[in-house]
Amino acid sequence: MSKLIATTVFVILTVSLLSASDLPLGGMRLIDGYALRRESAVDAAAWRIEKQNGPRIEFESGPSEGSWADPKDMKEYTWYRERIVNRHSVRLALTKPGLRTVWDEKGDISPGNVLLITFLLGGPRSANTANFKVKIANPAEVADVLLMVLTFDPAKGGF
């Protein structure tokens, strides 16, 4: 009997460890060629998702992050949408090409085209959010980013 219990505990621990390591950052599924790296931030969880010669996705989440994709900034966006993804309200926005905003990197010679994706973790007025930001160079990058980021599920933790 004790051998059976020990074997069961071993299997459960192994499966738990494999599941946790296979699904970091809210269980997000990356497209081949992309790598995930933990970053540092003072009051937030921070990650970077990138691929060589491809887009660099910045992620930050915390109780005081606020909504990076914010309906109050509609005049700065080419488009803005709100959807439910994995039972969470999600805001998506693309900044206008050529328009410099707070989301552009310093020294960026072609401002705009920054895709912002915000998962609202504490309701529509809460500052508790999970945010993604990426500079977009072409439509294929929009597709890649959305295919990955929309698999993010805050309920799965890992961030």
Task: Please give a structural write-up.
This protein has 3 helices and 7 strands. With 159 residues, it is an alpha+beta fold. The relative contact order is 0.20. The chain has one domain. It has a 7-stranded antiparallel sheet, covered by helices on one side. It is 23% helix and 31% strand.
Brief synopsis:
This protein has helices at 2-22, 24-27, 139-149, and strands at residues 35-39, 45-50, 56-62, 77-85, 88-95, 114-120, 129-135. With 159 residues, it is an alpha+beta fold.
SSE topology:
Layout: H1 2-22, H2 24-27, E1 35-39, E2 45-50, E3 56-62, E4 77-85, E5 88-95, E6 114-120, E7 129-135, H3 139-149
Largest sheet: 7 strands, antiparallel
Helix share of residues?
10-25%
Q: Provide the β-strand percentage band.
A: 25-35%
Shape: globular
Mean pLDDT: 86
What series of H and E elements makes up the topology?
Answer: HHEEEEEEEH
Tally the beta strands: 7
Counting structural domains, the number is 1
Helical segment count: 3
Features:
alpha+beta; 159 residues; 31% strand; disordered N terminus; 3 helices
